[in-house]
Write a structure and sequence with these properties.
Length: 267
Amino acid sequence: MNILDKIVAHKRIEVAEAKAKTSIADLEKAPLFSRTTLSLKNALTANGASGVISEFKRKSPSKGIINDRVLPEIVTKGYVEAGACGLSVLTDTEFFGGTFVDFAKARTANPATPMLRKDFMIDEYQLWEAKAIGADVILLIAACLTPAEVRHLGRQARELGLEVLLEVHDREELEQSVCEYVDMVGVNNRNLKTFVTSIETSLELAQRIPDEFVKISESGLKDAETIQQLRSAGYQGFLIGETFMVNDNPGLALKELIDRFQPVGHS
């Protein structure tokens, strides 16, 4: 059993426990459930956009503790002030050290910034959870969903007013899972089964992603040269977490990176 299989198996137990505690009807009563969601797709394609989606991540299965000394509200506010187009906040506790509390603090600190609930979505119940905590975007990982599940969850997310980021790792996942209920396609340069990272994954798939989808490169992005290379290949979004989180001041690390490349529309 690889790490992705372990995560999904644990997630099924988590979701069953959550359903037993809180009904969908109760989630719909949450104060943030009725808020108008923000578009990450629009934020990434706006003139002058940096294209960076900055992530708050305490730990990961491959690296262990990355940074457990910082507060989500301070880090995410620093990201936005530095020029992030959107925020990604982990809500998986067991493997990534994230919580709904982290998400709530980031949401309160950044009411005008699109936010992705970063988690392993395997059940439509989690979409209602995402809406209830104030998420704007949800992640569907092709490696742990069938194409039919991607369609079903994507359609339901759309009905709830949430944007959908489909994450793929190879050509087969892309061709089988991309559908009309997806807004953005993210290419994860880290193989979730082996945790080996290669930017070549994004470069290989760039031209295979239909142009109607905003293209996002994820994982292993560390320098301005790589971002420029990916932008030239057609990517408009860059999801970056660990590169910033290893610093005591992740927001400053983002600012220094943006200063080294030109946001879209800037001469």
